[in-house]
Write a structure and sequence with these properties.
The protein is an alpha/beta fold. It has nine helices and eight strands. A five-stranded parallel beta sheet has the order 2-6-1-7-8. Helix 2 packs across helix 5 (110-123) and helix 7 (154-168) crosses helix 8 (174-190).
């Protein structure tokens, strides 16, 4: 059976990665978390004191882009590829609220986006890939056979993010999470380079009130219909 490219875009904390991982495992496709790549670049900038909540020196980060090596290495214990920054597994470090607060600023930089989009397109050149992010269906894979756009209310997404972080043991407040979700929505949707928009041919899924199983069944049916139509 022919393989397709599945592009999943949407706002933060809409469960893009969760559904992408489920589909990749079921279909035996490669999964690429494009957001992890931007988070890893953000972590690099933080570690080199190029960015903080009060200051950002984008020119220094741009000058260092050739020194940033990103790759995904499959971890059989979790069932997906974890991201490595210069040969160091940073899967845990990039999921902190500190990185979340700064990643949208880094993702605005055109030079960063250009570098990462090139890598993402290379990863998916042979199809059989599921990639999630903000501009996958509009910029990275505009010809993807199936495009999804995930959405949910800011409050629902903040609850999910809060539960995820507190479960890990991070000390955060719900109000802080909600403000971050709303802030990232604004930055992602209004940035000049590749803003978050729904592709014209994308199917929008509001999962504010959808359970994980119901959502997976619904989307898996869409995939099957697309595959059988080829």
């Amino acid at each position: 059976m022919s393989k397709i490219t599945i592009a999943i875009d949407g706002f933060s904390s809409t469960g893009k990665s969760t559904i992408a991982k489920q589909l990749a495992k079921t279909l035996a496709y490669s999964y690429v978390d494009s957001g992890a790549m931007y988070r890893a670049v953000t972590l690099y900038a933080m570690n080199h004191n190029y960015i903080s909540e009060s200051e950002f020196k984008p020119e220094l980060l741009i000058n260092d882009l050739d020194k940033i090596n990103l790759k995904f290495i499959f971890n059989s214990s979790v069932g997906y590829g974890e991201i490595y920054l210069n040969d160091v597994n940073v899967e845990h470090e990039i999921r902190t609220l500190a990185v979340s607060k700064l990643v949208s600023k880094v993702a605005e930089i055109s030079e960063v986006r250009k570098k990462l989009v090139e890598q993402q397109q290379l990863m998916g050149k042979n199809k059989g890939v599921i990639m999630d992010g903000r501009d996958i269906g509009t910029v990275v894979f505009p010809n993807a056979e199936l495009k999804l756009f995930m959405n949910a209310s800011a409050e629902k997404r903040a609850i999910r993010r809060y539960n995820e972080l507190t479960k890990r043991g991070d000390k955060v407040s719900f109000d802080e999470i909600l403000k971050n979700v709303e802030y990232r929505d604004h930055i992602d949707s209004t940035r000049e380079d590749s803003p978050l928009v729904k592709a014209e041919d994308a199917i929008e899924i509001d999962n504010s009130n959808l359970g994980l199983e119901e959502q997976f069944y619904k989307i898996h049916q869409m995939v099957q219909e697309k595959l059988t139509s080829l």
